[in-house]
Structure formats: structure tokens, C-alpha cells
Design a protein that fits this description.
- The structure is a homodimer of 219-residue chains.
- The first copy, chain A, has 219 residues and is mainly alpha-helical.
- The first copy, chain A, folds into two domains: 10-57, Arc Repressor Mutant, subunit A; 63-211, Orthogonal Bundle (Tetracycline Repressor, domain 2), CATH 1.10.357.10.
- The first copy, chain A, is 68% helix and 0% strand.
- Chain A starts with 12 loop residues before the first helix and ends in a 12-residue tail after the last helix.
- At the A-B interface, helix 1, helix 6, helix 7, helix 8 and helix 9 of A face helix 6, helix 7, helix 8, helix 9 and helix 10 of B.
- The first copy, chain A, binds a DNA duplex (30 and 30 nucleotides) through helix 3.
DNA sequence: GCAGCAATTCTGCAATCGTATAATTGGAGC
DNA sequence: GCTCCAATTATACGATTGCAGAATTGCTGC
């Protein structure tokens, strides 16, 4: 037998798509978008390149699916922190902010993965829509938490505040992930809570000292 | 004459390098990193592809030069706004923040170029150093402006505040660039000034209404 | 266990990539 | 205006890319 074909198992469409998406994300996270070639993706997913076209009409379609998956997962992970939080509005907001600024959301791999898609987001209208939807989805959760605070605020003010809080979280997420070595443990979370609190005029740190993990008990 | 060679002019090394860097940035800004092929870069710079290797040993070296140039330019453009500002600390800080949140600093091309190199920043120690230096350089300018405000603040507080203000500017810069269509004109600048003011406990909007350009006179 | 279908592999192709190097030519110095 | 060197063009090469279609094979229903 000179021609020994590679043995394989049939998998459900759902499984295969998930595998291919995961492989794509792993490659982009490690080596940027240029590392995610169809052959590399297939190899990491344990299949051959031709199969990709069986599940995705084009490579761009796979990339889009992978990006959508990443964005959804990040919002989901931050939102999951709400389940363990109490009923107090300040406490819930603080839990959400803190969860967004620590692993697994705060992660250089996630940043690189996210950044690796940026150039596609620019040129691909569909991807831009995915990005916008994910951004607004996260911001809506944030705005919902802000709205429950014991204050009076009209719609326009709520929108402004949500944009601002989202921005400070984004910025801290970025630099905290990239330059993690130059920040003390818990510093990013503390600054995030203090900044969001300052923007909204509430004290998040007071209600939520249990969310901090400074690693050292500085005076 | 069957072989008509293309006519050309000799230029200084300085000019050619600048042209190639500018061509690279333009292409990445328009079409993402994948659009910046050596042939496309050369064509835009008005030369042939071979010349690139005459000035840069490898394409990566050119891209790195373009990245370094981008980072330096962004800080420089924001800092340039200080020259036209008055002597009042609030006014100067506001001018700096506002300049960081509007074109040419607020630019999707800059975001894409910046993002396109995240994965290299992760693995390449030199590039990480470039990023960190640029980040700290910008933050230092910001912290210097914050320190001149008429308040009392110790070193640790100044550091925290600079990180927070930098983060909110970063986040607004990102989303404002990517989703520029979903924000009103001047909205990003206004939110930036209000947020930075809230974090620092000063009113930047009061002193600096001339920095805003809302495009419409809403009541 | 046998048929048949679809999941998967395999092979190939045209295009494009970055790089290397030989062939030219513009322009400065004399 | 001639010389000569470096700036620039031109050409070529091997590798890789996304994509397509034919060939195979694992699995499901009987």
C-alpha cells in the first residue's frame, strides 16, 4: 500500500466549526493575523486544509466567526461576575468592572487576538458590524448597571457616562495586559474602580474592598 | 529601442526612507497590514520594489520604522497643541486631552497600524521597549500637566491619576477612531474632558469651551 | 454486512509574497 | 564631457497563499 490515506473521524458540524474557530484564535493570539493561514489552522484543528472550505465558504468567513466568538466570550466572562455579586448596585457595578480588569479577561493573548483582527474590521463591513454590536452590547450592560445607582441622571448623561466608563476600562485593559509587568498586582483593578467611581460620583472602593487583591498590605 | 527603462531621479537617503515609511503607513491605514506589500509600498512611493531592500534590510525593518514613526508622531501631535495653549494649567491639560481625541491623532489608520503590531510587541523585546517608551513618554507629559493643577497630590496619587487619565484617553481614542460614525462630532472630546476632569476633581470644560466643536448648537 | 451519502483527504493550480542579484543609469567630481 | 560609483530598475526564484475539484472513506440506515 503505497497510498496510505490519513485516518480520520467524522465529527458533528458544531464540533468542527468550534475546533476551527478555536484553532484560528490560538494562532492569531500567538502570531498575529498573518500566522492564521488555512493550512496552519487546519493543522492545529487536526484536519486538512480542504475541510475548512467545507464548513466556511471562504477564509474570511472563518475569521469573522472567530472574531465574533472572541468578543462574545469576553462580554460573557465579565457578565458572569454579576452572578456572584450581591444586590447592591454599587457592588454589582464594581464586580463587573473588576472582572473586566483581571484575568481571564485581562490577558495579553486576548489583546493580541483582538488587535490581530483590527485591520480586517476596518476593511470588512461585516466585521465592523460585529465589532460594533459587541461593543454596544458590553456598553449596554455597563449602562444598565450605572442606571441602577442611587442617583438621578437623564438618558443623555447615562450615555455619556457609559461611554466614558467603557473607555477607561478599555484603556486599562489594554495597557494592563500589554505592560502587566509594570503595574502592581491589583493596581489596575483599584484604578479602574476609583476612576469609574469618580466619573459617576459614587465610591465603588468603599463597598467593594473584597474585590481587591493587592498582594501586599501597604499602609 | 525595445528596452525602455523607467526614468528616475536620485534622492537623498533621508527623503527616500521618509517616503517609504509614509507609503507604508498610508497603505496600512487604508487596507490593513496585508495591503502593505513591498510592491504596493514601492508603487506608492514612486519607486520599484527592489529599492526597499536598498534602504531596509528586510520588510520587517521598514514596518518597524513605520511603527516607531507613528508612535512618535502621535505624542508629538498631541504635545504640539500645548504650544498654542495659554498658561492656565486647566487650559493646557484640556488642550492636550482634546488634541489627543481628534484628528489627526484620532484616526482609524493609526489604530490599525498600532494594532497590527501588537503580536510582534508581545514576542519582540525591542518592539515592546518601543511601545513602553512611547506609552510612558505620553503618560509623563500627561502627569506633568496634572501636577501643575492647583491641587495637592502626592506622587502615588499622581501616578494613579495619570494612568487613569491615560486609560480613558486610550479607550476613547480607540472606539472613537473605529466607530467614528456612531459618535456625534465633538462628543468624544467632550466626554474625554469631562471624564479626565472628574477623575482629577477639576472642571476642564469650564475653562475650555473654545476647544469644543460640536458641529451643532444643541440647547 | 451492504449500499450510499456526505465528511474528509488529497492533489493541483494560479497568484502573490519577500528576497536576491544582475543590469542599468543618474549625477557628482574633475 | 568623461569617469565612476552608488542609487535605482529589472528580472528571476522559491516559498507560501487561498481556493477548487476529484478521490477516498467513515459512518448511518437498513
Amino acid at each position: 500500500m503505497d497510498t496510505a490515506r490519513r485516518a480520520y473521524r467524522r465529527e458533528s458540524e458544531e464540533t468542527r466549526r468550534a475546533d476551527l474557530v478555536a484553532a484560528t484564535q490560538g494562532l492569531v493570539a500567538e502570531g498575529g493575523a498573518e500566522a492564521a493561514t488555512v493550512r496552519a489552522i487546519a493543522a492545529r484543528a487536526g484536519v486538512t486544509a480542504g475541510l475548512i472550505r467545507h464548513y466556511f465558504q471562504t477564509k474570511d468567513e472563518l475569521i469573522r466567526a472567530a472574531y465574533r466568538s472572541l468578543m462574545d466570550d469576553m462580554t460573557a466572562k465579565a457578565s458572569a461576575a454579576l452572578a456572584g455579586a450581591g444586590a447592591l448596585p454599587e457592588e454589582r457595578l464594581a464586580a463587573f468592572v473588576a472582572a473586566s480588569l483581571r484575568p481571564p479577561v485581562l490577558d495579553i493573548g486576548a489583546v493580541v487576538l483582538w488587535a490581530g483582527y483590527m485591520h480586517k474590521v476596518r476593511s470588512d463591513a461585516d466585521l465592523l458590524a460585529v465589532h460594533e454590536a459587541a461593543y454596544l452590547s458590553y456598553r449596554d450592560v455597563l449602562q444598565g448597571l450605572i442606571a441602577t445607582l442611587p442617583r438621578t441622571a437623564d438618558a443623555a448623561q447615562l450615555r455619556s457616562e457609559a461611554i466614558a466608563c467603557n473607555a477607561v476600562i478599555d484603556g486599562l485593559w489594554l495597557e494592563g495586559s500589554i505592560l502587566s509587568h509594570s503595574f502592581d498586582k491589583g493596581e489596575i483593578v483599584t484604578i479602574g474602580l476609583r476612576s469609574v467611581g469618580a466619573i459617576l460620583g459614587v465610591n465603588l472602593l468603599a463597598h467593594c474592598s473584597m474585590l481587591l487583591d493587592t498582594g501586599k498590605t501597604t499602609a
